[in-house]
Amino acid sequence: xxxxxxxxxxxxxxxxxxxxxxxxxxxxxxxxxxxxxxxxxxxxxxxxxxxxxxxxxxxxxxxxxxxxxxxxxxxxxxxxxxxxxxxxxxxxxxxxxxxxxxxxxxxxxxxxxxxxxxxxxxxxxxxxxx
Length: 130
Fold this sequence. Notes:
Elements: E1 2-5, H1 7-14, H2 20-27, E2 31-35, H3 38-51, H4 57-68, E3 72-75, H5 79-89, H6 93-105, E4 109-110, H7 114-122, E5 127-128
Parallel strand pairs: 1-2, 1-4, 2-3, 4-5
């Protein structure tokens, strides 16, 4: 079974957030999918945490190394479709990329982002609740 993860789910695991164990349990035995943009989004989120002094540079590098160890299949983005999704659902590009992958693979999407979760529900796709 495939499952699509967004940055919020990955970061919850990497940053040891309260949802961590639930995400790990829910994704065991699945093939993890994500748009090929996910490494850039994780890097952007980590740099934002460093800028806000929530993480040190060394911690940020460690978080990114942890991310690199997660076996995720990165999927090419269908940009015209993702742009259409972004416009229809009033989403940021990164969210539309994740939604486009879930839609393309007809795979459940795991997210902590409420706006993205609402778009998944509106599109009658499978939302993996955390």
